[in-house]
Structures are given as structure tokens and as C-alpha cells.
Specification:
This protein is α/β, with parallel strands linked by helices and about 325 residues long. It has 13 helices and 14 strands. It has 2 domains: about 10-90, no CATH class; about 95-325, Alpha-Beta Barrel (TIM Barrel), CATH 3.20.20. Helix 7 (about 150-165) runs parallel beside helix 9 (about 190-195).
Length: about 325
């Protein structure tokens, strides 16, 4: 059986009707939706319906019912006020990005102390059939989060990046979102298989932990990283110093690479506060055996200061902007 997270179909909605006034409408709504083959199941005061039923049903609820006592939930089973349902419905375009794999992989060079290319970070960019140009990545991932499609989008990006890695024959850094992964043994198996099919040495892959929200289950994250490690891949902690990526997390995860967040990189040569932070994370990286990498380097004086202090790898516009892989 295919995992629904890996191969998302149409979203189904659970609609819960509360209150005595609303209860009298349930049988009429159930009959109406059944006749149009839009009702999947009913359980007391909860109807499970297809997404195509939502626009008309919502219009009826707002016109004739006490909508403040009507709630909906997706597969995550989080009940929300019915007034929020239109946002979910209007973001269907992200499903098309996933289904049609409208993802283009860009690559940005990562250089060593001699400014020779060490590898590339793989960055996903997205298109919509009805729009010109690329969408902002944040907009796409936010839409996927709202529609409970995070794993499916993360997987499409990951698999597309692995396919493009074969064209570069260098170390490649690929982002992944740990909280989107249910079980590494199942969810990441396809990534491992694809790398094997393409004949790419696993040691060329570095999977970056990208997470702006706190990872509550650190054991789950460690399980994911251990799975990668057992398969011969390396891993990095991204945006160190920002959000989830703290000094404590760096020392607990002991990644192969530590990527210092750009806000401590840009202007570091003239900012004592940033210098102290850069040195602190550099010392932590040395302690756990992580290769220190500074991202977002734009000025040569910052590059020279970081290099002098002991940073080994560098990424930023000073060395090259992201460009599509052809």
C-alpha cells in the first residue's frame, strides 16, 4: 500500500456540526452530498466529504447555520473553525506543484579557503502552471504546511535534487525538513534507492537539517540522521545560531558540517558581537568534529576574517549566485 503522505491524493475534509440548531440540517446535507457522490462517510455529527463539496457546503453553512459552531479537520485531525476552510481550499495550487513535480533545482557553489569549488547546495524553486517566473519558496512551503502536504513536497524536492546531483559529480548539500518525515526506514528508502540507481557514491551527499520550528522529538531526529549515516551519507546543521539550530543542538547532533547563519556572517569583519558568535560556534564545531561553513558571504573582508579565524568552507554571492542545473 502506498503511503498517503508520499503519494497524496485529493484532500478529504471532516466537518463537525455542533449545537442543536445545526443538528437539524445534518440529514439534509448528508442526503444532498450522497446524491452528488461527494459524501465519503458520516459518523454522527461528523461528515467526511470530498474537497469538491467544500465551496457549496460552506456557502450553505454561512447562509443557514450557526457557522461559529461548525468545525473542520484534515488528516491531521486538528479541528479548526469553518471560517478558516477557504484558505485551505484556495491553496490547491500547491498540490499541482507536487503532483506534476513543478520543481527546478538550482545550485549554489560552496568553496574552500582557496576559493575552489568544494560542492554545491541544491535549492528548490517552484513554478505554477498559471503564473510566470518562480514562486517564493517560503510561500510554497507555507501553503504545503497549511494543506498538510509538507512531506510530499519535501520528498519531491529531495528526489529532484538527487537526480540533478548526477550532473555535478561534486559534493551536494540537500535540504530536508525532519518534522515532515514519519519514519526514516520508509520515508527515506526511495532517496537511498535513487542514489544507488544513479550510481552516485553516498559520501557525495550531505543532507541539511532545515527547521525553523523547534524539534520536540530529538530522538526522532537522531533516528533520521543515524539512518542517513548508516547508508553512507553525511549530514549538516543549517542556519546555526538562528531558530532551532542552537549551540546545544549543534553539540548534541554533532553533524559533519556546521553552517553558520548568514546574519552572523554578513558584516562580521567590523562587528565585535558577530565575531564573538562566529568564534563561539566555530569552537563548538571543532569540539564535535564538524567542518565549519559560513553561508551568505558577500564581502571579501568578511571572507578574509572568517578564513583567518579558521572557517574552512564558504558560500555566498561573493563566490556565485544560485543557478538552474541544466
Amino acid at each position: 500500500m502506498n503511503c498517503k503522505a508520499c503519494f497524496p491524493g485529493d484532500i478529504t475534509y471532516k466537518i463537525k456540526f455542533m449545537g442543536e440548531k445545526n443538528s437539524i440540517f445534518i440529514s439534509f446535507i448528508r442526503h444532498y452530498l450522497t446524491g452528488r457522490k461527494q459524501l465519503i462517510k458520516h459518523q454522527g455529527n461528523v461528515l467526511i466529504v470530498k474537497e469538491e463539496a467544500v465551496p457549496g457546503l460552506v456557502d450553505f453553512i454561512f447562509d443557514h447555520m450557526q457557522y461559529s459552531e461548525v468545525y473542520f479537520a484534515l488528516d491531521d485531525n486538528v479541528w479548526r473553525p469553518i471560517k478558516e476552510i477557504t484558505t485551505i481550499f484556495e491553496l490547491q495550487w500547491v498540490d499541482q506543484i507536487i503532483t506534476n513535480q513543478l520543481v527546478t533545482t538550482f545550485a549554489q557553489p560552496i568553496v574552500d579557503r582557496n576559493e575552489e569549488v568544494y560542492g554545491y547546495e541544491m535549492l528548490s524553486r517552484f513554478k505554477r502552471d498559471d503564473k510566470e517566473g518562480y514562486l517564493a519558496p517560503f510561500e510554497v512551503f507555507q501553503a504545503a504546511k497549511i494543506r498538510n502536504r509538507m512531506y510530499a513536497l519535501d520528498k519531491v524536492c529531495r528526489m529532484t535534487a538527487v537526480r540533478n546531483a548526477a550532473k555535478l559529480q561534486k559534493k551536494v548539500f540537500i535540504n530536508f525538513i525532519p518534522t515532515a518525515i514519519y519514519s526514516p526506514q520508509h520515508c527515506l528508502k526511495s532517496t537511498v534507492q535513487l542514489a544507488q540507481e544513479l550510481g552516485i557514491n553516498p559520501s557525495l551527499f550531505v543532507f541539511e537539517v532545515v527547521e525553523t520550528e523547534e524539534v520536540e522529538d530529538m530522538d526522532h531526529l537522531k533516528n533520521i540522521l543515524m539512518y542517513y549515516k548508516e547508508k553512507g551519507f553525511e549530514y549538516a546543521l543549517d542556519d546555526v545560531g538562528e531558530g532551532f539550530s542552537t549551540k546545544e543542538v549543534l553539540e548534541e547532533l554533532a553533524p559533519n558540517y556546521m553552517k553558520l547563519d548568514m546574519k552572523y556572517v554578513q558584516g562580521v569583519s567590523n562587528d565585535q558581537s558577530k565575531q564573538l558568535t562566529a568564534k563561539k560556534f566555530l569552537n563548538s564545531a571543532k569540539t564535535v568534529g564538524s567542518v565549519p561553513l559560513a553561508e551568505g558571504v558577500e564581502l571579501r573582508e568578511d571572507f578574509e576574517w572568517l578564513k583567518k579565524e579558521g572557517y574552512q568552507l564558504f558560500q555566498g554571492y561573493l563566490f556565485g549566485k544560485p543557478a538552474p542545473i541544466v
